[in-house]
Structure prediction request, 889 residues.
Amino acid sequence: MAPNALSDRLRDIVGPDAILTTPSDLLVYECDGYTIEKNKPDVVVFPTTTEQIVRIVEVCNDLKVPFLPRGAGTSLAGGCLPVGGGVVLALTRMKRILEVSTRDRYAVVEPGVVNLWLTRHLQPLGYHFAPDPSSQGACTIGGNVATNSGGPHTLKYGVTVNHVLGLELVLPDGRVVQTGGPAEDNPGYDLTGVIVGSEGTLGIVTKVWVRLTRNPDAYRTLLAVFETVDDATNTISDLIGAGIVPAALEMLDRLILQAVEEAFHFGFPLDAGAVLIMEVDGLEAGLDADAQRIAAMARKNRAREVRQARSEAERLLLWKCRKQAFGAVGRLAPSYCTQDGVVPRTQLPHMLRQIQRIGEKYRLRIANVFHAGDGNIHPILLFDERDPEQVQRVLQASHDILDECLRCGGSVTGEHGIGVEKINFMPRLFSPEDLATMARLRSAFNPDNRCSPAKMLPTAGACIEPTKAGRRAAL
Amino acid sequence: MDVPTCTIDDFGPIPLLAVGSAAELGDIVRQAATQGEAVYPLGGRTFLHLGRPPTRSGRAVDLRRLNQIIDYPARDMTVTVQAGMSVAALQQLLASERQRLPVDVPCAAQATLGGALAVNASGPRRLGFGTFRDYVIGITVVNDQGHEAKAGGRVVKNVAGYDLCKLHIGALGTLGIITQVTFKVRPLPEQQALVLVGCGTATLPTLLDQLHASRSRPIAVDVLNAPAARLVLGSEPSLPWLVVVGFEDHAEVVRWQVDRLGQELACCPEYHPEVIDGPAGTAVWKGLVDFVARPEPVMTFKANLLPHAVAAFCRETNDLLEQPLIQAHAGSGIVIGHVVGDLTLERAGPMLTMLRTAATGAGGNLIVVRCPPSWKASLPVWGAPRGDGWLMRQVKKALDPHHVFNPGRFLDGI
Ligand SMILES: Cc1cc2nc3c(=O)[nH]c(=O)nc-3n(C[C@H](O)[C@H](O)[C@H](O)COP(=O)(O)OP(=O)(O)OC[C@H]3O[C@@H](n4cnc5c(N)ncnc54)[C@H](O)[C@@H]3O)c2cc1C
Prediction:
C-alpha cells in the first residue's frame, strides 16, 4: 500500500475537513480515558452519514487495515486504543436527534449525540434517557451502547441495555443492518441485546432507538453521614437486604469528600468516615415514607446525621459533587487510577475493608466514590506517575482489588468494560469453553477481526502486560 | 423395549430422555451431534405449540429434573437455579423472602424457567417491570458440542464479555439448551389494585391515550374485548371493551394512584371505573396472565406494534367475522388474538395476511403462536421477514452450525 493511498481514499469519502493525518493531530486519538497504553492511529475520520461509514469500512477492508469506532473517548478500559494503528472513526459529528415520540416512548438518535443533550432535549416533554453515567456531559449514546453504561440512577432504572430498543449497525464487512426497532418483541434473536456492551467489536453503531423514561414527579435526596466506612457499607447491605431499592445509592469516603468539598463547598463534614447519597423518586405519595425508612436504616447503623436536600438547587449541587468528584481528585495527587469491580452487595463491608488493607499493604492512598447500591466499587488509587516504583505498586494493588472481587463471586467490571485493560482477567472469569463461545459469536459479525481488534476477548498474542500507569479517573 | 416417546407438532414419535445433570445432557448432545441427529429440549410443554414442526429426526430431552436451587442469597436480591425448575416453584421460593421475579409466565405451575426463557414469556406486568431480558444476569447453556458455556455472572451489574443471556432469551432453544440461570429479583409489592374501565369502540383510542398521559403510573394496561372479558372475569361485560389498569406498590402509593385515576376518568360519563383488589383481584390477574395459553382457540396470533396503534389494531381484529378473543398489553404494544370455533386454513391465510399488514404498518410484526400443525407449512408462522434475518442465520451458523438444536422450528434457515 502506498503510504497515502489510505488517507487519499478516505479524504475522497469524507472531504478535507473531516480527516486528520498529521502526527500532532493524531495525538489526541492515541488513547481514551485509559492512558496506560497508547498507540497512534494512522488516520482519524469524522463521518457524518451511515453511507460514508460503509465506504470507509470498505476501504479499510480493501487495504486490510484495522478500524475502530470512537465516541467521546471517555472510556476507561482502553476500548478506543487503536491496537495495530489503522483508522479511527470518530462519530462525534453524527449528532442529530432524528425522532422523538413520547406517545410510543422512544427516540431515534445518531451515535454521536451526547447523553446529556438527549435528556435536556426531552426535559420539556417530561421524559429522559435513564442511563446517567457520571460522564454524561461528555460521553455519547454510541459509547453508552458499546459499553452498556450505567450511572447512579441505573440502580432503579437499569443500565443502557434496558433502554435500547434497536440499532442500526454497519458490520465489519460494510453491510448495514437494523436490529430491533421501536416496537418491542420483534420475532427472532435479540441481536440488539448482544450488540449492546460489545465494545465496538461487532460493528459500528450508526443509529440507536432508545426507550424514553418518564421523569419522576418528585425526589427526596438524603445525605447520611457516618463515622466509619463500615457503618456506611452496612447500611447499604441492610437496605438491599430489606428489599429497599432506592433510585440511587452512592458512597463517598473521607478522602474523596475532602477533595470534593474543596472544589464545590457543599458543606460536607470533613471528619466523617463516609457519606451516603440516597435518593428516592417517583410519585409524591409515599416518598416521605420511603425516605423515612431509609433514614431509619442509616440511623440504625449509627449515622451521626441524616440530612435531606431542602431545595432542588441543593439536590442538584449534591449530584454535581458526586458526578464531578473525579475532577476534584486532582487536588489529592498528581495521578490516579480507578478500578471498576463488582461484588454482591452484602459483601461491600468486607470489600471496602479489603481495599483499605490493600492500600496499606502497597502504601497507597485509595479514595472511594461509587455506585454502592449495585455493589459496583470504584476505588481511586492515588500516586505519582513520574515514580515508576509507585506505578508498579498501583498496578499490583489494582490487581489485588479485582482479585478480591472475583473471590467474592463478583466481576472485574460493572460498567467500564474489558477493553484492553482487563483482557487478562477474562480467563479468570470465564472458562475456555465460555470464551470459545464468545469468539464464535464475534466471528458471526467480525470474522476477520479487523473491527476493534484485540479488545475484550483474549486471543493469542494480543495480551499486553501493562507496565506504566497513567492518569485517569472514573466515577 | 419401551422407550418413552413424544411428538412435537405431530412430528414423531421422538425418543424422549429425562436428564438429571448437565453432564448427562452434554453426552446426549454430543452423541446426537456425531450421529447427525437433532436434540429437542422440553420443559413443562406449555408452549410447545410455538414454532414450526421439527424437520429432523432426533431425540427429545426432558429437563424437569434439572430443578435444583444453586444459590439464593436473598439479601443480595439474586437467585441462581437450574432451568428445569418450574416458574411457580421459583416464585414460591422467592415469596418465602418476600421477593419475586416480576415477569408473568402463563401456566407457571407447569412451565419451566428454561422454557419460559426460550419463548420469552411475558404478560401484563411487562409495562411496569420489563421482560426476562431485564432480569437474567447470568446463564449457562449446553452448547452444540455438549459443553457447558456460561455468560454473565451472579452480580447485578456486570459488563464482562458478550451478554449471551440476551441471545438465548426468545431463541426457542435454537442456540443451546439452557441449564442454569441467575436472576436479579425484586421485593414483593405491599399492595395490588386493578381498576376496570369499560368503554365503547369509539372511545377506546381516547381512553388509551388518557391512560398513557395519566399522572398515575400503571404497571399494566390490558385491553380485553367483550368475549375475552367474559372469560377472564366470568361475568357479562356491558360494553364492547374492558380496560384493566394495574397498580402495585406501597399501599399509600397504590391508593393515591387509584384515586388519581378515578379523578382523571371522571371527565367522561361513559366510564364507570370499578376497583378490584384482594382475592378477586388475584383471580383477575391470573386470568390476564394465563390468557395467552387458553385452551379453546384453533389459532392464536400475537402482534407487536407501536403502542399508539393498539386501539386501531384491536378494532380491526374485533371486526373480523370470527371475532377473536382479544387481549392487548396496550402500553407495550402487544396484542394477542385467539380464534375459536370454525376456522379453515383457506380463511386463516388471508386473515393473517391482512392483520400482518396492519401490524407491519404499525411498526411491528405478527406471529402465529398456535394453529393446527398441518397449517404451519403454508402460514407465515414467524411473521414478515425482517432485514436482520440473514444476520440471525449467521449467528445460528456460528453457534450451532450443524443445526443440532430444534431444527426447523424457528425462523427460516434457523
Ligand atoms: C469522569 C468519568 C466518569 C465516568 N462515569 C461513568 C459511569 O458513571 N458509568 C459508566 O458506565 N461509565 C462511566 N465512565 C466511562 C465512560 O464515560 C462510558 O463508558 C461512556 O459510555 C463512553 O462513551 P464515549 O462516547 O466516551 O465512548 P468512547 O470512549 O469513545 O468509546 C467507548 C467504547 O465504545 C466503542 N464505541 C464508541 N462509539 C461506538 C459506536 N457508535 N459503535 C460501536 N462502538 C462504539 C469504542 O470503540 C470503545 O470501545 C466514566 C468516564 C469518565 C472519564
